[in-house]
Design brief:
The chain is of the alpha/beta class. It is built from 16 helices and 11 strands. The strands form 4 sheets. The chain has a 3-stranded mixed beta sheet with strand order 1-2-3. Strands 6-7-8 form a 3-stranded mixed beta sheet. Bound molecules: adenosine monophosphate (AMP). The site of adenosine monophosphate has 14 residues, from strand 7, strand 11 and helix 15.
Length: 337
């Protein structure tokens, strides 16, 4: 794995530039993540499903559904090592590509497709690496599943996610002092995406949604009506229901139909409002164990997305940024701007 100290990061920042923060307490989460290793965040017991690379990709997606897991490491028997991850993103890419072709192609081209679409090099981490390095990898490579591999046995111990790491912070971070910026409103600290939000209309098809997932690489799409008001959320995870319900040859289904045919009912959309504090938002996202909240105004019109990627980036990798923004605002308040 690359050394995090030398690698240029998002927006041209390097790790050295990221490190110093302007407020004394701004770095607490960075320090917390540097002081804990991946092993600390691994649950005592969890389910792990491994697929052999020779498994037909279609069967592999059914196996993901049947086992209730979202991703599986791929084992190459010839090389005697893990060579990649099979995730819902692969499923989306394959469905999107083969939609125009007969379904049978999915049966016969599966192994080649798997190699074409999966990451050629497996991005993984060792159990004794810091959680800071895990977050760095998740964000740098824009992945959502990071296998923790024991260097001695070569075994996958767990698959780390943003959710697991935030949960760890939420539970054990209560023992560390809270940075002041947690009391700032989300609109002040500007954590999230608030422009060019990728959305789908209720009348758009599942294929339209897949095309956006492929082009924009976002993990969920707010489903909106003609007035831009939020009606539901269609996430990458929902796409796997197509395999569960054997509906993958009906991508002309509207969003409305796809949402109402969801196997498990999702109660509403988890939202947040611009005036809510960062602390309230972190609390809500961690307790609900979701990957993002949809930011809406008082009329339920979609204004942004606050995802775990945004929160981990801001709290752990670039705390100096939030601190600086919060500080600037406080000064402006004092000056009566
Ligand atoms: P995620 O894939 O959810 O971890 O998010 C990665 C980045 O994309 C974050 O900066 C999110 O705020 C942003 N994002 C997530 N969903 C959307 C969306 N529907 N439209 C625009 N940006 C999004």
């Amino acid at each position: 794995m690359e050394s995090s100290h030398e690698v240029p990061f998002m927006d041209g920042l390097t790790m050295k530039e990221i490190a110093p923060a302007s407020a004394p307490d701004a770095n607490v989460y960075t320090k917390f993540m540097r002081d804990h290793c991946c092993y600390d965040a691994i649950p005592t017991s969890s389910k792990l499903v491994v697929f052999d690379t020779t498994l037909q990709v279609k069967k592999a997606f059914f196996a993901l559904v049947a086992n209730g897991v979202r991703a599986a490491p791929l084992w190459d028997n010839k090389l005697q090592c893990f060579v990649g991850m099979l995730t819902i993103t692969d499923f989306i890419n394959i469905l999107h590509r083969y939609w125009q072709s007969p379904l049978v192609e999915i049966y016969y081209n599966c192994r080649e497709e798997l190699l074409k679409y999966s990451n050629h090099t497996l991005i993984s981490i060792t159990p004794d690496s810091s959680l800071f390095d895990a977050i760095y990898s998740l964000l740098k490579y824009k992945i959502h599943r990071l296998p923790v591999i024991d260097p001695e046995s070569g075994n996958v111990l767990h698959i780390l996610t943003h959710k697991r790491i935030l949960k760890f912070l939420h539970i054990f971070g209560t023992m560390i002092p809270k940075p002041r910026y947690l009391q700032k409103r989300i609109e002040e600290v500007d954590i999230g995406t608030f422009k060019q939000i990728a959305t789908v209309r209720e009348t758009d098809t599942v294929y339209d949604a897949l095309a956006i997932f492929v082009q924009r690489r976002v993990s969920a799409l707010p489903v909106v009506n003609e007035e831009g008001k939020i009606k539901a959320l269609y996430s990458r995870f929902d796409v796997i229901n197509l395999a569960a319900q054997k509906n993958y040859n009906n991508l002309n289904m509207t969003m409305q139909e796809a949402i109402s045919s969801r196997a498990c009912c999702v109660d509403g959309v988890l939202k947040c409002y611009p005036h809510e504090t960062l602390e309230t938002i972190i609390d809500r996202i961690a307790k609900a164990e979701v990957h993002r909240l949809v930011l809406v105004d008082k009329d339920d019109v979609v204004g942004g997305i606050v995802s775990l990627s945004d929160l981990l980036q801001a709290l752990v990798l670039t705390p100096a940024e939030i601190s600086r923004r919060a500080q600037t605002l406080t000064t402006e308040d004092k000056l009566g701007h």
